[in-house]
Design goal:
The structure is a single chain. With about 170 residues, the chain is of the alpha+beta class. It has one domain: 3-Layer(aba) Sandwich (Glutaredoxin). Helix content is about 50%, strand content about 15%. A 4-stranded mixed sheet has the order 2-1-3-4, sandwiched between helices. Helix 6 runs antiparallel to helix 7. It is globular, with a radius of gyration of 18 Å. The chain starts with a helix and ends with a helix.
Length: about 170
């Protein structure tokens, strides 16, 4: 009897941990509504669990000094895509299609897009030559990143410098 109870508990725990990821459409609809209410833009970042540069960008954006700057200017949406077969369940349905629509499939991860509160694209991670900045770290990549942030936010020059120093220093 104890074995059956233990087995039943294990099955219940396994089932309760399996959750479908929210769809891209749902996440974006919620983000646009929040962005309109808070007078912000929407920063969409595509990532995968295997992507070291994605983790680095996530860490930098959540830095104790930078997180308030990003949060004051953007509603941030993280979409998981391009996972390995074993981890496909982590993907947000529709993320790959959005990535494809904005020419990000072959660009690599992380890939990011910035939309206004109405869903119009106002910035992306492609430089003038069409190369993905990803998680910017080189001086020229960080410069393009900061230009994009400047055009799509109310960040001050001092705040942009703080972001630039963090992204260049790691």
């Amino acid at each position: 009897m104890n074995f059956r109870l233990l087995l039943l508990c294990c099955i219940f725990l396994c089932i309760s941990n399996v959750q479908a990821q929210e769809t891209t459409e749902t996440l974006l609809t919620e983000a646009y509504a929040k962005a309109q209410a808070e007078n912000k833009n929407v920063f969409v970042k595509f990532e995968a669990s295997w992507c070291g540069w994605c983790k680095r960008m996530q860490t930098q954006m959540k830095d104790s000094e930078l997180a308030p700057l990003f949060d004051a200017n953007y509603v941030i949406v993280t979409l998981v895509t391009k996972e390995t077969k074993r981890l496909k369940g982590l993907e947000n349905p529709g993320a790959f299609e959005l990535l494809e629509k904005h020419k990000g499939v072959k660009a690599g991860l992380p890939f990011w897009l910035i939309f206004d509160a109405k869903g119009n694209l106002i910035g992306d991670s492609l430089d003038a030559e069409g190369n993905n900045l990803g998680c910017p770290s080189a001086v020229n990549e960080v410069s393009v990143f900061l230009e994009t942030l400047q055009k799509t936010s109310n960040l001050s020059e001092t705040e942009l410098q703080m972001i630039g120093e963090t992204f260049r220093s790691e």
